[in-house]
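request received
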Amino acid sequence: MSTISIKNLRKTYGPYVAVDDLTFEIPDACVFGLLGPNGAGKTTTFKCMLGLARATSGSVLYDGAPLVPETLERIAYVPERSVLYEWMTVAEHLEMQRRAYKKFNVARANELLAQFGIDLRKKARALSKGMRTATMVALAIAREADILILDEPTSGLDPINQRHVLNLIINESARGATVIFSSHQIGQVERAAERIAVIDRGRLALEGDVDSLKADRKIVEAILPSESFALNGLAGDSHILRLDRTGRIVRAMTSSDAAEVLAKFEALGASGLRIVDLNLEDIFLYAVSPADATADVVEDTKL
Amino acid sequence: MNYVEWLRVRNALRVTAICLGVLIVICLVVRISVAAQFGDRSIVDRIGREKDTVVTHSVVDGYNRTTMTNAREHTTVVIEDQPGGGKIIQVTEPSHSSRDRSESVEVGPVNVSTSQESGGIEKTTIETNRPVPFAIYLGIAAVIGLIVATVLGAPFARENDGHLEFAFLKPLSRTNNALGIIGADCVGILGSMIMAIVAFAIMHAFFEIPHFDFSGINATVIPVAIALPLSWYALLNASTASLKRGAGAVLGLAWPAAIVSQTLAHFNLGGSLAGQAFHAIFWGVSRIFPLTYVSFEGHDSDLSTLGPKLMVTATILTGLFLVYGALAVVQWRRVEA
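response:
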């Protein structure tokens, strides 16, 4: 199996920086979710990992070694958009994969395509967007690869097939494969991923174990006495990752001891105090949303 | 070899086979129509019905000989079947010309020679089913090969257009991948040429048993006929290898560009600086195109000079194939998805 190390990865297209100094590690046999808003650099990261795009600087290592053609025998990839040959039938795509890879399991591919209800005799141009995605997923899963990289694997699928793909991802992980996938469906990532990395504008915004991220982060909500109420340096507190304020309501994201932060709000005279658990969507949004209510703004509020 | 490219080659050969098949059917229809009106027997019957004509049939050395004599017109026609299916037709008649005109014309498998005999007699000998210069077949095959080369001419650009995730993620180096694609296409182009030769041999066989002449220039021209479509394919591939879109336009414009540049290269605008510059530019541009090197203009039938010329042409075309092929591979290796 395989550990993937991404070190200081940078990819530029002319003046545009698509990925900037990205560093994280994907452990062996892990389901790893790569999250980020549109244009954050997820697909570019995948392309650099697969050698489809040349990194401007930095490196991607598989078990400590750079990507070589032989490594590709161990990697299956489902791109964001269909790359099926429009003029070829599904059966011909299957044959193409069988000839290209030693471990391609034709029986498994047939089984998966049947589960998705895809007719092998159909040409790719006759398939709907969802069916094309399903075909790509089936072809990738049938590779029985050590590393499975899926870029938006549920895009265009109906909820039933989305669930099916998610189950396949979990099954692949159970088989021992390292699964890396991106999705805008945060709920799916939360269900399947053990670790996540959030990329925003090409940079790593957050990375870690999903359970730990959720356990470590809480929101302390409070109602301030007035809209002009000053927070007296609370925004600079080392336990507070971020402070958002809307009128009298203030929400503080804490990295460790939420009770301590809550006590500080209480000491300021705030009311309606409560500690809220975060889900992955909250964590994602906090990581990537523009900080229009930064600590400084909150601190300087004098209405 | 590359499976997807094999499928493309298969499709191109399938279309080629359909086109050649249509030609064969048309040829068969023509053959059947012609047989009813212009077959040997009908011609003999028609002449035999003319007044004062005597028709005799005999067998000489196991082959039929038909002699038609018209005493009034002083004309004799002798038709002799030849081994291998050909015929020799000798027409002896009073000369229509006061001049001594002896000439020989060869059109494919037919040779027509005329000579003046003593006593004001003109003798015309028509030999059918003579060996056909294989160069003619190769010329036809090269044209078909060029067409198929144009169809297959942008294999890398086709992969660039949204399929690199398949093409570049195979566990083999990009160079080997590229060579596999080029190899498949070259086999396809050569296959189309063989199909063309077979198809035209079939069409030929509708009229007579084909015999080929492989001697002299006919053998020397084989490398040229093979290298021409392959070098054209390599040029098109090199021109499109890094394109993600618009390869079709390049393929479509390649033929006009080759013809126009070659035509303009032949223009002589005099010795002025502008004229010389114009000539130099288009002469240089025309050298890019393999078609420029294949010209029978000024060639004579002297094999001692034509043979070496063809070998030089074949060498140049092979060189172009290798250079353009390498350029295409180098470009494609650098393409990003």
